[in-house]
Design goal:
CATH superfamily of the largest domain: Sodium/glucose cotransporter
Number of helices: 20
Largest sheet: none
CATH class of the largest domain: Mainly Alpha
Number of domains: 2
Distance between the termini: 60 Å
Strand content: under 5%
Number of strands: 0
Length: 467
């Protein structure tokens, strides 16, 4: 066993230990789902930023930087823009509703606002999309273990799935928030040390600027090709309405914790966004013929840095994938146990029963996500499924529910149907390319907003379930 692998395994054992220790303090479903609504700005910040710097923001974004250049900044940068809207606009409003009505999931909010049908449909859609993002995190974990120990993809995915399942099933959001704080510290320290040393090792900016690139657009920050500003439509809305993020805000103790915690998370994302891009460019200098861009980050950390620094960097990336994976696993767990089981299967279930179902759901979702990861081709391809589905189905119902009093069940269902339908139609017709700047995701968002507005203007619009 090499030193890098031994340290990663020791670090994994430490995370499991922290998660299990915090899990012993979980006294009921409220602690599991919303951490007793006691998270301050620091824990809100750390658990959000830890969740947001995951596979797409590390392995995936570095691969995009390797392949597409500066425009890859928009992959993480768009998440930062969406997070600003969440901090200043949607987040505080939905936290107040959650506290006033004891909401535990986004499904609770959707049913309160629109009825059970909208809740059920969204819960099913989220299960499909969320499994894709869980798979992406596990693929990234597997890529690290492949470079470190030569482990086949299926073994790496299985190890990652087992790890997050163990500590997530123990304590839900309460365990996750504290584990995420440890993971975020490792990430930030690791990348801050690794970036300047990796740049120096290849000869500095002069060497990066002289690298052979696929096209002149490699240096165009505003490029709108495979990477670029098109990510604003694909990613931005999903970071405003993601159930995994909103449900973390349900655990905030007040609006101030939301504004500060989410606001600093947004600032962190906007600043961090350039780091994986530069690392990708460095990897192009050092390893110009990689079989797949997803290997760029693990390779630069394993073979482009001194051993001690590379190990710290690998631990940072490993932390990133784990924290994002446990966030989506938590979303899958709450969606099935609260939105589907408690609401439609066994409405009479008590707190203890719901908590038991939540923990078993975590185990089942971890197993399914692992299987999907083994079958999926890459990190980015898996993530794009999730972000597209999330944005076009949820953005209009969530935002309209907060700010358009007349919006009711008909408007929500029309927006969801038009958003998903429009996206799928453009995806199929254009092979995913869209029409210039009108990507499938952007068309879906426009269709959702137009359909919701049109139904709202029709006579006899249904009164919302709760005002």
């Amino acid at each position: 066993m090499n030193l890098n692998l031994a340290l990663l395994l020791a670090y994994s054992a430490a995370l499991i230990g922290i998660g299990l220790w915090i899990g012993r303090r979980v006294r009921g479903a409220k602690d599991f789902f919303v951490a007793g609504r006691g998270l301050g700005p620091g824990l809100v910040f750390s658990t959000l930023l830890a969740a947001n710097i995951g596979a797409g923001s590390t392995v995936g974004a570095t691969g995009l930087g390797y392949r597409d250049g500066l425009a890859a900044w928009w992959w993480v940068g768009s998440a930062g823009v969406g997070s600003l809207a969440l901090a200043l606009w949607v987040g505080p409003a939905i936290r107040r509703l959650a506290a006033a009505h004891d909401l535990r999931t986004v499904g609770d909010y959707l049913e309160m606002r629109y009825g059970a049908s909208v809740r059920g449909i969204i819960a099913l859609l989220l299960w499909v999309g969320s499994l894709a993002i869980l798979a992406a995190q596990l693929i990234a974990i597997a890529s690290i273990l492949n470079v470190v120990a030569g482990a086949p993809k299926w073994i790496g995915c299985t190890i990652g799935g087992l790890l997050i399942t163990i500590y997530s099933s123990a304590g839900g959001l309460k365990s996750g928030a504290w584990v995420n704080m440890v993971q975020l510290t490792v990430k930030l320290v690791g990348f801050m040390i690794a970036l300047p040393l990796a740049l120096s090792a290849v000869g500095g900016w002069t060497a990066v600027g002289a690298v052979t690139v696929p096209s002149a657009d490699y240096w165009n920050f505003w490029h709108s090709g495979p990477s670029g500003v098109v990510y604003l439509a694909l990613l931005g809305p999903s970071f405003v309405v993601s159930p995994g993020l909103l449900q973390k805000l349900y655990g905030a103790r007040d609006d101030r914790a939301v504004r500060l915690g989410v606001g600093f998370n947004a600032a962190g994302l906007l600043l961090y966004a350039i780091i994986p891009v530069v690392l990708g460019m460095i990897a192009r200098v050092r390893f110009p013929q990689l079989a797949t861009p997803d290997l760029a980050l693990p390779m630069i950390l394993m073979y482009g840095l001194p051993a001690a620094v590379g190990t710290l960097g690998l631990a940072a990336v490993f932390s990133a994938e784990l924290s994002a994976a446990d966030a989506v696993l938590f979303m899958l767990t709450t969606s099935l146990s609260q939105d589907l089981y408690k609401r439609f299967v066994n409405p009479a279930a008590g707190e203890a029963r719901v908590l038991t179902v939540a923990r078993w759901t975590t185990i089942a979702a971890g197993a399914i996500g692992t299987a999907l990861a083994i079958a999926s081709p890459s990190v980015i391809s898996a993530l794009e499924v999730f972000y597209t589905l999330l944005g076009v189905s949820l953005f209009v119902p969530v935002v309209a529910g907060l700010y358009v009093k007349r919006a009711g069940t008909r408007e929500a269902l029309a927006a969801m149907a038009a958003g998903v339908g429009g996206t799928l139609a453009v995806q199929v017709i254009t092979g995913g390319k869209g029409y210039g700047s009108l990507t499938p995701a952007l068309v879906g968002l426009i269709a959702a907003a137009a359909a919701g507005a049109l139904v709202l203007l029709l006579p006899k619009s249904r009164t919302p379930a709760v005002r």
